[in-house]
Amino acid sequence: MEKIAAAALCLSGEVHSLPPPNRHHNIIHELHAKVGDRVHRADQGFVTDTGRFVGRKQALKIAEAAGQIKEKMGCPGLLFSEDLW
Fold first, then answer.
1. How far apart are CA 44 and CA 69, in angstroms?
2. Other Cβ atoms closer than 10 A to 65
3. Burial, 34: exposed, middle or buried (Cβ in 10 Å; 0-12, 13-18, 19+)?
4. Predicted TM-score (pTM) above 0.85
5. 78: nearest Cα among 56, 55, 62
6. pLDDT tens-digit profile of 29-80?
C-alpha cells in the first residue's frame, strides 16, 4: 500500500522535498535561495514512498487509506503536513 513519505514542491517538472518532519515552508525557504521568487509558482504536494509526486487532494486519499492521518487540521479535502507529523 502506497504511503505519503514527505512534503514536496514541484517546480518546472522538478520535485523538491525534505525528510519529515519538514513542512512546505521549509522547502520553500531552501528553494527560494536557489530560484528566487519563482518558488511561488511551485505546486505544493507530497512524495509517496514510491517516489511519486501527488497534489494535496490525491495525497489526502493516499494518507487516509494508509491510516497515516494523525489529526486532521488543514482544509477539508486537502492534505497538509500538519495532518501527518
1. 18
2. 11
3. exposed
4. yes
5. 56
6. 999 999 999 999 999 999 999 999 999 999 999 999 999 999 998 789 999 9
- pLDDT tens digits, one per residue of 5-30: 999 999 999 999 999 999 999 999 99
Residue 32 domain-assigned (yes or no): yes
Is 76 domain-assigned?
no
User: ∠ at Cα 15 (59, 84), nearest 5°?
Assistant: 35
- How confident is the model at residue 73, as a pLDDT? 86
Beta carbons of 53 and 8 less than 8 angstroms apart? yes
Instruction: Domain of residue 48: give its range.
Output: 4-68
Q: For residue 78, which of 31, 69, 28, 48 has the smallest C-alpha distance?
A: 69
Residue 55 lies in a domain: yes
